[in-house]
Amino acid sequence: MGLNNDDLMKNIPFSKLIKTAGYVMQNWVAGECIYPFYASFKVTHKCSLKCSFCNVWMEKTPDLSTEEVYRVLDNLENSSIVVLSLEGGDPLVRKDIGEILEYAHKKPFILFFTTNGHLIDKRPMEEYGKNVDYIHISIDEGHENLEFFERLKEFQSYGPEICIQIVVTKQSMDAMEDKVKKVYNAAARTVIMPACHLDGTDDYYPNPEKFRNEIIRLKKKYPNTITTPIGFLDNINKLHGCSTSSIIIDSDGGLFYPCRTIGKRIYNFTEGSFIKFLRSEEAKKARKNMSQCSRSCGWYQYFATDVFSSPRSIISSISPYIFK
């Protein structure tokens, strides 16, 4: 089933789109992405798993209260953000996640929700689905849930669009096609990302050139199934291909800026205006540091969000949602 423009923009009022266009213009004039458009909010670090390529579960950052989460969402509402992803850990661990989703759904965002699926059978997913635009379910060897590929039709009954998130390691490259084929046969979609090498983890990062070539081959063989943008595949093969067009908010409202790889916690979303922070000299200096980073970590969010400025990436990213 395809996604029409009404579905895509149902939560974005015209006034928000006008403001967003203004932020896009200001970024263009400045020659840098001052104002981000995509945010992931880790509403908890708690998780039932300890994936070998992930370090989130290692951290002891406390969770915000329900009211404090609302404060973060209010701050985001008054910013340049138009796409918000609620993540973890596993957000299904939070007993108040239903209330949080209901509150977030009222905001002018396209709302994503990401889970490893291990608590799906214990949560009212159809109720949650009423307040979400897209549910991302991580299914791969690291998340120890490959059997979920046999339940894709069931997951699609939750209501919103379902997108399977597949993390690929250097060891699981050869198994990628089998997963994509199952998603294709279920008329579902998948976003495929490499396991970037995070601090405190072993290096599972696959060869970026081989990863790019294989994804492109699979995009052609299984059309309108893989949402991973071409721009991302190109960017991870550059010396510097990341962007400040996205942010990651920690479970206590803290922001590692400009990114979690090299950034420091220099702002908290429960205190003050995010827009004012972005205009500060401290934020400008942090963005400059990111522009000079040569780590090429391949973190999906930072390398994929040029979809907001590249027509080629926009077409590659949204065509699987429209032409199905």
| SS field, number of helical segments | 13
Low-confidence parts, pLDDT < 50 over ≥5 residues?
Answer: 1-9, 310-315
Quick check: average pLDDT?
88
The end-to-end distance, rounded to whole angstroms, is: 6 Å
Strand order of the largest sheet: 6-5-4-3-2-1-7
Strand content: 5-15%
CATH class, named: Alpha Beta
The helix-strand sequence is HHEHEHEHEHEHEHHEEEHHHH
Note down, in words, how this protein is organized:
It is a single chain. The protein is an alpha/beta fold and 324 residues long. The protein has one domain (5-251, 297-322): Alpha-Beta Barrel (TIM Barrel). It is built from 13 helices and nine strands. It has helices at 5-8, 14-30, 66-77, 97-105, 125-129, 152-156, 176-185, 208-221, 230-235, 274-278, 281-291, 300-304, 311-322; strands at residues 38-42, 83-87, 110-115, 134-138, 161-168, 189-194, 246-249, 254-257, 264-268. The strands form two sheets. It has a seven-stranded parallel sheet. Strands 8-9 form a two-stranded antiparallel ribbon. Helix 3 runs parallel beside helix 4. The model is unreliable at 1-9 and 310-315 (pLDDT under 50).
